Amino acid sequence: MVTDCNRMADQLYLSYWLRGFNEQNMLRQFEKMLALFPYSRLSQQGVVFRIIPLDYNQPAVFEQAYPSPPDLAAVLEAAKEFLHADSSYRLEASWDLWEREPDWRLAPVRAALCCFGPEFEHEPDDNLRLEFGIESLFLPEPGVSDSLKMVQSNIKSLLKLVHDVDDRLNAERRLLWSESGEDFYKRLERAVSGAGQR
């Protein structure tokens, strides 16, 4: 079943609102984000591309798996076949981050890259969105050995991606947010200061 980019609690997202975003240029903007994403080198799974019309209550009109990293020309060619102002485009992929299970290891983490047509019904009505994975991947755990160091590595990966995307997009504004509803920057500051004192 197709779900939206908000489907799981405690996911960490980055939303973009772009100047001049419209049906004619939205896939060009989406392509910039897709080209910058650091696709996993460790994952044995491919990526999945879905196109959903109107809102997330509708079934996908297109769903296709591709190898990772994907042939972006093929993905965008499929998107152009279903180019509508009321459609959303979602590429589910993986990137490599540090996880603790129970020991620290570099592992593929599911992520998603979304483009929303200007007439697609969704909240918070953003144009492009990056879904990074669960927010705990970017918050150190008090009392856990090497947690701060490993999480700092994950944060560096996140910040590099955000910086690269910022440089390519003509953003009016962007928002880093999570399903918890609390300001993620404040949670991060508290977690890092707490971990640093241990």
Protein described:
The chain has 198 residues and is of the alpha+beta class. The chain has one domain. It contains four helices and seven strands. A seven-stranded antiparallel β-sheet has the order 3-2-4-5-6-1-7. A hairpin with an 8-residue loop joins strand 2 (47-53) and strand 3 (62-66). Helix 1 runs antiparallel to helix 2. The longest helix has 22 residues, at 147-168. It is globular.
What's a quick, concise take on this entry?
It contains 4 helices and 7 strands; from the N terminus they run βαββαβββαβα. It is an alpha+beta fold and 198 residues long.
Share of β-strand residues: 25-35%
Structural class comes to alpha+beta
Query: Taking strands numbered 1, 2, ... along the chain, how are they ordered across the largest sheet?
Result: 3-2-4-5-6-1-7
Ends distance: 44 Å
- The count of strands amounts to 7
Q: What portion of residues is helical? A: 25-40%
Q: Please tell me the total number of domains.
A: 1
Oligomer classification: single chain
Average per-residue pLDDT, rounded, comes to 89
Gyration radius, in Å? 17 Å
The total count of helices amounts to 4
Based on Cα principal axes, name the global outline: globular
Explain the layout of strands and helices:
Layout: E1 11-18, H1 26-36, E2 47-53, E3 62-66, H2 72-81, E4 87-100, E5 104-116, E6 128-134, H3 147-168, E7 171-178, H4 184-196
Antiparallel strand pairs: 1-6, 1-7, 2-3, 2-4, 4-5, 5-6
